Amino acid sequence: MDFIDTYNDSNLAVITMQHSAKGNRLNKNNLEDLYQAICTSIKDPEARALLLRSNGSRFCLGMDLNYLQDVRKDKKRIEKAIELYTDVLSTIYKSPKPVIALIEGEVKAGGIGLIAACDIVIASENSSFALSEVLLGLIPANVLPFLLCLRIPPQKARYLILTAKKISAREAETLNLVDEVFPQDSLEKGLRSVLKSIFRASPHAIAETKDFTQTILFKEIDSACDLAKTRLLKLVKKPEVLDAVKAFNEGHLPAWFAKFRPKKPIAKREKS
Asked: Does some domain include residue 259?
């Protein structure tokens, strides 16, 4: 079975990691497949959003330890795997299209990096999360830029890393690692509700939002305000924005407004 399966349903690019029984472990080959799937989905003109999920009860348990042991003396292969992992996280983060992670079970180590880079993280109540690298004498170095900048305060991140503590979905939501938590039996409904909201928004405005938040991250307030004025003045002059304002004023919907009606369940997974 290939590591990645992709399909498009109602303009949603669904990217499924298919080795849940093995923990969807990340090695050079799997990372190449995941990277290619994400890049292809971003370039797909039919896709308005990306959904990253697993086919079973393990979303991703991080690094493939067998692979690491096999290549422990091959510095170039280790470097390539680390580089690919960083590229995957960066590509998710910089994607002009929203990337949603769907969690229905266990997430550990490098899997935390995958979800930290995503725009929206939705989890079932039975999910769990752990940063377990210190147990192997490692640190989640590639995860931390996304975890600290986007999700969790530094001291909370240190606590989770130093203790390798497993936390529940509700705890993860409190820490801002997860955005929405739903009971398993209402996960499909909750996920669709979030996606329906995204599909009502302007794809251009979503891309601009992602780009602008990256631009002003860690800027001083005065500099950020100056950039905001410049960006907004540019946007309000765009024909599609003016057309949308006119449509709303006349009681119509803008051209980009789309209904999300997938043909099959998107939270359905195999048991593993």
From this structure: no
The domain boundary, picked from 198, 232, 259, lies at 198
What does the pLDDT read at residue 220?
Answer: 87
Question: For the chain, what is the domain count?
Answer: 2
Give all strands (DSSP E) within the chain, no chain letters: 4-9, 12-17, 49-54, 58-60, 99-103, 106-108, 120-124, 128-130, 167-168, 180-182
Residue 172 and residue 76 share a domain:
yes
- Distances from the Cα of 182 to the Cα of 85, 125, 179, 189, 272, angstroms: 29, 6, 10, 9, 20
Q: Which domain holds residue 219?
A: 202-249
The residue whose two tokens read 């992992």 is: 85
Structure tokens that stand for 162 in this block: 């130093």
Residue 93 near residue 128, CB atoms below 8 Å: no
Phi and psi at 162, nearest 5°, equal -65, -35
What's at 72, amino acid-wise? R
Give the separation between CA 238 and CA 25, rounded to whole angstroms.
45
Same domain, 68 and 23: yes
Sign of CA dihedral 208, 209, 214, 219: positive
Residues in the chain with pLDDT values less than 70: 67-74, 268-272
Q: Are residues 112 and 10 in the same domain?
A: yes
Record the pTM. Answer: 0.91
Cα–Cα nearest to 178, from 114, 131, 116: 116
Q: What is the pLDDT of residue 21?
A: 93
In a domain, 256, yes or no: no
Residue 11: give its domain's CATH number.
Answer: 3.90.226.10
Closest CA to 143 of 233, 62, 205: 62
